Amino acid sequence: MEKVVKRREIIDHRFTKGGEIRLQRREEGVYELIYNGVFLMASSNDHSEKVLARKALQRLKPKSGEYEVLIGGLGMGFTLREVLTCPSVSRAVVIEIERAIIDWNRTFLFNLNGSALNDPRTVLVHCDLYSFFYDTREHFDAVLMDVDNGPNWLVLGKNKRLYTRKTLQKIKEILAPNGVLATWSAQRDERYLRKMGSIFPQTEETRVEETVPKKGESFIYVGRAGP
What we know:
Layout: E1 8-16, E2 19-26, E3 31-35, E4 38-42, H1 47-58, E5 67-72, H2 78-83, E6 89-96, H3 99-106, E7 122-126, H4 129-135, E8 140-145, H5 165-174, E9 175-185, H6 190-199, E10 202-210, E11 216-224
Helix pairs in contact: 5-6
């Protein structure tokens, strides 16, 4: 049986400090993000990004005020879009280091994320996530991390510093009381879960089944700062 090879059109590509980042489109209209030749995500599957947002928001304890959420990594805007479906969210701060990804979300990917960047609750910050953690004086009810392909599948080697005990402790410090950290990972990572457990009183791992474009799995790791 002859193998069908799907054609891909390069929509845009740029060279950054980290290497080459590329936006491409398959012939059936699916967009893909590629970084240094490594597949990051496709527009055909937003399921696990939705689960990431839902898990974080579900684990927040009710409070009298509204929630402020920090999202590390814009991607195609799916996590942001899902966070904004929650009426209790008053502000969603998104940290994205790559200008290209920001530009593509405002142009080619605009209709995919429901114009989430235009929502008045959205604050988009073009900077390094690690630096933001250590420089900010703000506090957030939830921090969502979707960087690279998770803690044990890095596109940029320097991003391993995002998943150290030191940085997890820093994240806990910028969380509000009973705040939540949720991390997306393409692979199961028991070591990362143990690290979280050494910092956060409550942790959990959720396996997410992927069916589009093919069967697979991803994992969500959640830690809550309070009892």
